Amino acid sequence: MTKLTTDQLEALGISRDELIEKIIQRCSDDILSSTSSDEYGNDVRIKSDVEKRLQALCKETIGRRVQEIAETHILPVISQRIDNLVLQQTNTWGEKTGKPVPFIEYLVQRADAYLTEKVNYEGKSKDEAGSYSFSGTQSRITHMVHKHLHYSIETAMKNAVSQVNAALSKGLQETVKLKIDEIVSSLKVVSK
């Protein structure tokens, strides 16, 4: 193997720094990936475990840092904007017609309106039901409470029935086994 001097490399058009950079690049490529051939004989790059772990670590670090920046600088501004937001109803031309309402108060009003709105037996409002024969018999919150109670009672009953079935099947199985043992013990085999 022939050793080339720095002068000889530069005569070939390769500087010492370029050579060092190429060697480092080649070494890192060999560590981070390998190549294989696909069914057509083409070279395919395969990521090594080192590269996969390095990418996962970078992704996690970047995500954590972005989250820290958001919590420090962005979320306080958003919270302040929401707290100071004032909404006001307008007409079709954009002229303000109603009184200004802070966003939090507006949100509370909307939640109250939603919960006290009349709904049918399916929990749908007149607009949601889309039928002419709408009969709002209860408020939405009443419907939600009834639905939750129905679910809780139904779940409890199913659990109770499954427990009873398990106990009965075990008892029935033991009884059948005892009866079979009695019948077997009462039979006598006679050989001739």
Describe this structure in words.
The chain has helices at residues 6-11, 16-32, 49-84, 103-116, 126-129, 140-186, and strands at residues 33-37, 43-47, 86-87, 101-102, 118-119, 138-139. By secondary structure, it is mostly helical. The protein has a domain at 6-35 and 46-84. Strands 1-2 form a two-stranded antiparallel ribbon. Strand 1 and strand 2 form a beta hairpin. The model has no long low-confidence stretch (mean pLDDT 86).
Secondary structure topology:
Elements (H helix, E strand, L loop, with lengths): L5 H6 L4 H17 E5 L5 E5 L1 H36 L1 E2 L13 E2 H14 L1 E2 L6 H4 L8 E2 H47 L6
How would you summarize what this structure contains?
The protein has helices at 6-11, 16-32, 49-84, 103-116, 126-129, 140-186; strands at 33-37, 43-47, 86-87, 101-102, 118-119, 138-139. The chain is mainly alpha-helical and 192 residues long.
